Amino acid sequence: MGAGGDAETNPNNNDNNLSRSAQMKALKLPPFNEDKDDLDAYLIRFERACTAFEVRQEHRSTQLARLLQGKALDVYQRLADDEVDDYDVLKAQLLKRFRLSEGMSETVQDK
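The structure assignment produced for this chain is given below.
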């Protein structure tokens, strides 16, 4: 009976961990390509995917960083240690680097 109780407890914990892991892996967006992609449109798509897969706000910066390359990745790497987990700071710095206003991206977050 004790083993059955353990089996019931562990799968629940594993389900929570797997579900978070699955959410992270589910964001299979192509990497941002600064030569081909519009950053504002890319961020909208990224935010919608995060919402759809229930990626928590504190994980968004890390998830976006996995999809960055080139100058965009340089922006992430230059963030201060206390800013790297702040999606809003990363987004603002990317938009600043690529000289875009937040315009449409803000409307997605507000919804």
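Interim note for the steering committee: The helical segments are 2-26, 39-52, 57-66, 70-77, 87-97, 103-110. The chain has one domain: 2-110.
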